[in-house]
Design brief:
Blueprint lengths: L7 E7 L6 E7 L7 E10 L2 H7 L16 E9 L2 H5 L5 E5 L9 E5 L3 E3 L6 H4 L4 H15 L4 E4 L5 H12 L3 E6 L2 H9 L4 E4 L5 H11 L4 E4 L4 H9 L5 E4 L13 H4 L4 E4 L2 H7 L2 H13 L9 E5 L7 H7 L5 E4 L13
Parallel strand pairs: 8-9, 8-11, 9-10, 11-12, 12-13, 14-15
Antiparallel strand pairs: 1-2, 3-4, 3-6, 3-15, 4-5, 5-7
Helix pairs in contact: 4-5, 7-8
């Protein structure tokens, strides 16, 4: 470890499912072969992070652990050979490794860091992997299946916005669902055409009419719970609900008639599996696509920036108003690259 690096660092730790975050001082990570050390600039809170805090996400981290699925920073040490050596001091976006990224430093497998270029803002780079790549993946799956229209749930959130922007740019019709009337006004001001409030009494009929009018045979479901059945009922024969999130934090109850008589189905999507199956050349193309669009469909709104010392309630702050924008955990605090005015 370079002598210029400290012997210890601040981290956020969760000790039990659903418990509070704790600020802790820990020893610096000892790099294993194939890892790089990233000095973290920023890391967002995503719905997948909320699930991990409750032990409901498919990572093998054991409590207590440092959360944080994605982030950005600079490589300051490595144990990964000459290619990693060439990135020393460079800006990168990163997926988490053996632990998360809500810390001053993180050990990350070299294959999970992506150079982002010196002109890229590290606050946007921190949010350039999970949501933008999921939007690219879901829209590409719709195109591959010959869809001309989709149902986009949780459309007021960051990922819902990205899916809508990406889909419209690719020529797909989009039926958006939200949970508040204020979100309808905001989405329409942003160019959305069809926006429905799922809490309105006539929601089911309106969704059914639009889905069948446009033959929206594919719904991207970020909510789960009872809402999945509502989507299934509204869709035309042969419709598919693809679940990629579980904001409802509740099980889904289903009846067999939709599968037996109407040829409908429910599938799941997880970005990790999609990336694992994606050829390297296409993955690199997708990452380049995201980098080009960090001011376009891949742009993320930041609602609040918190230092590690301020972030023990960060998850609750984000969960209370997810449509307002991302909560960024920035160990170094506010600086020219991490601004709450993003």
């Amino acid at each position: 470890m370079p002598a210029s690096l400290p012997m210890s660092m601040k981290t956020l730790v969760i000790k039990e499912p659903g418990g509070p975050l704790h600020l802790e001082e820990r020893a610096m990570p000892q790099l294993r072969k194939g890892e790089v050390l990233v000095q973290m600039t920023a890391s967002p809170i995503n719905p997948s992070d909320l699930a991990s805090l409750h032990g409901q996400y498919a990572v093998d981290w054991q409590f207590p652990f440092v959360p944080g699925m994605e982030g950005s920073g600079r490589i300051v040490d490595h144990n990964a050979g000459r290619f990693a050596a060439q990135l020393m001091g460079k800006k990168v976006a990163a997926f988490a490794g053996r632990e998360g990224l809500w810390a001053e430093y993180a050990a990350v497998p070299f294959e999970r860091v992506v150079p982002v270029g010196e002109k890229t803002r590290l606050d946007q780079a921190a949010m350039s992997l999970v949501n933008p790549l999921t939007a690219i993946a879901l829209v590409s799956l719709a195109e591959k299946r010959g869809q001309t229209a989709i149902i986009n749930t949780a459309a007021a959130g960051a990922l819902g916005r990205m899916i809508r922007k990406r889909a419209v740019a690719r020529g797909l019709k989009v039926i958006n669902t939200v949970r508040q009337d204020a979100h309808i006004e905001a989405l329409k001001a942003d160019g959305a055409v069809h926006v429905l409030n799922q809490n309105h009494p006539d929601f089911a009929e309106e969704l059914k009419h639009l889905a069948r009018h446009y033959r929206a045979n594919l719904a991207f479901d970020a909510i789960g719970g009872d809402f999945t059945l509502a989507l299934l009922k509204a869709m035309p024969k042969g419709g598919e609900v693809m679940i990629y999130g579980g904001l409802a934090m509740a099980p889904t109850s289903l009846t067999p008639e939709h599968f037996v008589f109407h040829d409908k189905k429910i599938t799941g999507f997880w970005l990790v599996n999609w990336l694992d199956r994606r050829p390297l050349a296409l993955r690199l193309r997708d990452l380049y696509d995201v980098r080009r669009n960090l001011s376009g469909f891949a742009l993320s709104k930041v609602a609040k920036v918190l230092t590690l010392d301020q972030a023990e309630n960060a998850a609750q702050i984000y969960q209370n108003n997810m449509s307002a924008g991302k909560v960024l955990i920035a160990p170094g605090g506010l600086n020219p690259e991490v601004s709450s005015q993003s």
